[in-house]
Design goal:
Structural class: mainly alpha
Oligomer: single chain
Radius of gyration: 21 Å
Strand content: under 5%
Number of strands: 0
Mean pLDDT: 76
Largest sheet: none
Distance between the termini: 55 Å
Helix content: over 70%
Low-confidence stretches: 1-9
Number of domains: 1
Shape: elongated
């Protein structure tokens, strides 16, 4: 078996190198800005989350609808079918929200890091830097199955302001700005932390809403 960090691998950077040799990986992207593999990893890791959300929320939603219909005297309605449809709608909505957040994140990064480099180079660098988000999703999915959506969300809420995965992505964005785009230190700090700032802002808003309710 060939080692992951072989010189031949750097012709097509291996995703694991972002965790072990980020400087070498982002430097290699200057000559080979390949983004398809990390984008596929992001898509595969994030896609199951809405399905899990729908599956976990279905029993609670069915019970709530059944209670509501019973109190309203509409016993002929089918709470199961309605709960199933609503669960799918909420799951699809969460998928769209995730996709929108990632699109906004890339757009902010592209804006803050400047338009002096090809879009393909920006996309490859951003995609590799976001791989910690894929790792987080891979860990969250089994937690949702084992502990349920509510307990998992409560557990993640404690780390939302200091999310180690988003901090890792921010650090990788900084390394990429320096090694791939050859930006200065100040511009790299602005682009890297500005890109993930909206995630932390969303976490603050969520905590504030939870505290006020």
């Amino acid at each position: 078996m060939r080692p992951v960090d072989s010189a031949e691998t750097m012709d097509r950077p291996h995703p694991l190198l972002v965790f072990s040799r980020p400087r070498d990986l982002f430097a290699a992207l200057r000559d080979n800005p390949e983004s398809r593999l990390p984008l596929r990893i992001l898509a595969v890791s994030l896609a199951p989350l809405p399905v899990l959300f729908a599956g976990v929320s279905y029993p609670e939603m069915e019970a709530a609808i059944s209670e509501s219909l019973t109190s309203a005297g509409e016993l002929t309605s089918s709470p199961g079918q309605l709960a199933f449809v609503l669960s799918l709608v909420l799951g699809g909505g969460s998928l769209l929200a995730i996709a929108l957040f990632l699109l906004i994140s890339f757009s902010i990064f592209r804006l803050l890091s400047g338009f002096g480099h090809p879009l393909r180079l920006h996309l490859a660098m951003w995609a590799y830097a976001m791989l910690p988000v894929a790792l987080k999703s891979a860990l969250v999915a089994p937690a949702v199955v084992l502990f349920g959506m509510e307990r998992t969300a409560n557990g993640l809420g404690a780390l939302s302001l200091f999310d180690p995965f988003m901090l890792a992505s921010s650090a990788f964005l900084y390394v990429g700005c320096r090694e791939t785009l050859r930006l200065g230190r100040g511009r790299s700090i602005l682009a890297s932390f500005g890109t993930v700032a909206m995630f932390f802002a969303a976490a603050v808003a969520q905590i504030a809403l939870a505290g006020s309710s």
